[in-house]
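S.,

Sequence below, as promised.
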Amino acid sequence: MDFEETSAEFLELASEVRLKILFDMLEKPSRLTTLSKKFDASPQEIHRNLERMLNSNLIIKQGNNFYSLTTYGKAVCTQIHSFSFLSQNKDYFKTHNFETLPSKFLRRIGDLNNSQEITGVSKVLETWKKIYKTADNHIFNVLYETPLELMDLVVKRVKQGIKYHHIISENASIPKGRRNLLEKSGFNDILNSEKIQRRMLKHVNISIVLNEHSAGIMFPDSSGNPDLRSMFYSTNKYFREWCLDYFKYCWNVSDPFKEFKLKE
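The prediction came back faster than expected:
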């Protein structure tokens, strides 16, 4: 890898103004005067930054005095999302990790950028419930724990026609009384429905909850298990697609569900 050339590119991006200009042009071409007013900067400052970006092949100048991104500039913008997500949450990742995350998902970690961190067990569960309640077609889970208070809602949604696809860890944290509750709630009666499909993984490190509109992800803390005290949540298209692709990956490498492996 040519670190000298790469470091030079980082230097060109090491400016809040230039980053703002890049992402503004990602939406549409713009003029110098428009950028000056939008970012409350002098025309001279904007011109100086535009010249640097022209020389770095990040932008081109069109004949009508509009500036727009080059193919290279557009590609650079897609990578900046990853740095943005990681830098904004670097304190969080002091106590959480994604060491088990396959590299193909780590390379796309920027897709999680447009999200909010939900903190506190009660708020996480409320957000979890919201994902279940707002589903119009499906609910997909990858879980280490199965909160009992959500089972009645799951049964209700499946009876309403929602597909429920569930992946659980073989060493999942199963609360006492789970089997009795499943029977009382009517879950066992709908197990043979095509709407319910269940699979198992040896261990779940990262938990995912999603429907066709929104998604939530819980990374592992120092215990190596997903932290239910914190969830990244978003309705953003790319965030949800990342979570959906991760669910599909887990589904493809999972094993058939075996009830006897779960211990209360």
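The CA atoms of residues 85 and 113 lie 5 Å apart.

Coffee later?
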